[in-house]
Design goal:
Helices cover 14% and strands 58% of the residues. Strands 1-2-3-4-5-6-7-8 form an eight-stranded antiparallel β-barrel. The chain has two helices and eight strands. The protein is mainly β and 198 residues long.
């Protein structure tokens, strides 16, 4: 998992550097996001957004919850997520008012000894350790309120079609998988973002 994590973080870093360079070169606007709803799961997260014109913006958000660090712990809720969004702003007023668009999500998770039956997902983590990936894509919509001084508050909802595949392990740390699972879900998501634009 560490090799994958380093690879995805490095890719994200270079992608974001490219966005910043493009923003400087073409005088695009830039924003930083923090999802307050995601923080409620004790997951540090940040999002980056660029505005190439007055009606569209593109964002990449990531969240990473690395703890508990001790692999011997029976209870685990580790994950890494990356979410890409393309937003269309109503009436050509970027970063304020109504917006709608599309999103694509990738999530890598390592869960055990938790009751997280989120719309039928991850029920196997109650009595076993599960580790796998989730891929999702769908539609989103929301509204942004201008708070002044470059800050906005955003309320957002999305509905994605998600596919996940994971391995089930008997023990929380090691051992061979006892089963492999593939499932498809409708995944609702909500976000309450505080954003700073510059």
């Amino acid at each position: 998992m560490r090799t994958k994590l380093i690879r995805y973080l490095a890719t994200s870093f270079f992608f974001l550097v490219g966005l910043i360079i493009a923003q400087k070169a073409h005088a695009q606007q830039f924003a930083l996001h923090h999802n307050l709803a995601y923080s409620a799961t004790l997951t540090p997260n940040i999002g980056f957004e660029i505005l190439p014109d007055s009606s569209w913006s593109f964002a990449l958000s990531t969240g990473y919850r690395p703890w508990p660090k001790n692999d011997e712990r029976a209870r685990k809720y580790r994950h890494l997520s990356m979410d890409f969004q393309a937003r269309h702003w109503d009436k050509d007023h970027p970063w304020q008012g109504a917006f709608y668009g599309i999103d694509a999500l990738w999530l890598h998770y390592n869960l055990s000894n938790i009751y997280l039956n989120y719309f039928g997902m991850f029920a196997d983590a109650r009595h076993h350790r599960i580790q796998g990936n989730l891929y999702a894509a769908g539609a989103l919509g929301g509204y942004a309120w201008n708070l002044g001084s470059g800050f906005t508050l955003e309320a957002e909802g999305a509905l994605d079609l998600a596919w996940t595949h994971y391995r089930i392990f008997e023990r929380p740390h090691c051992g061979d998988p006892i089963a492999r699972v593939n499932r498809v879900y409708l995944l609702p998501k909500i976000a309450f973002n505080i954003a700073w634009h510059f």
